[in-house]
Amino acid sequence: MITGIAAGIFWALDTVILGIALAMTPFVSTEQAIFLSPFVSTFLHDFFSALWMLLYMGIRRQYQSVVRALKTRSGRFIILGALFGGPIGMTGYVFAIKYLGATYTAMISAMFPALGSFLSHVFLKEKMKRYQMAGFLVSICAMALMGWAPQSTQVENLPLGILCAL
């Protein structure tokens, strides 16, 4: 549970830092910089994430098992999914931060796990325990409260931002 809470805190911190960085002068000085800033920040984000994971795997001595797993057929699909999902998903997330702001982007992206759990309950007939249903309701209430609170940031392009977040 501590790991999950820490992951949520660091993901929120990551979102806020990206929002602040994208509003700084180097990223808004020219039209080209405005267009390229989400791509550059996504590259830097994913690059440093990869370095961190390589360091972590080196400390845990897991290189050989990872290389062995990646040589399998399912490992190749994992690589393909990571190549498409990581850069494309993160670029959409960064564009959403740019166009919606960190608050609205965090609200939308925080709902995906809860929505996925609820949809698996509806369509796949997965059983939801009481605490899972309570977590789903808490996330919906928290999203409503975040949307109800006055925002200090301006939304640049609402439809495009929502599209990028999705």
From TrEMBL:
Source organism, top-level taxon: Bacteria
Ranges where the EamA domain occurs: 9-146
Keyword tRNA-binding on entry: no
TM stretches of this protein: 7-28, 34-56, 77-96, 102-124, 131-149
InterPro entries recorded: EamA_dom, EmrE-like
GO CC term (a single one): membrane
Family of this protein: Belongs to the EamA transporter family.
Protein name: DMT family transporter
Organism: Candidatus Pullilachnospira stercoravium
Lineage of the organism: Bacteria, Bacillati, Bacillota, Clostridia, Lachnospirales
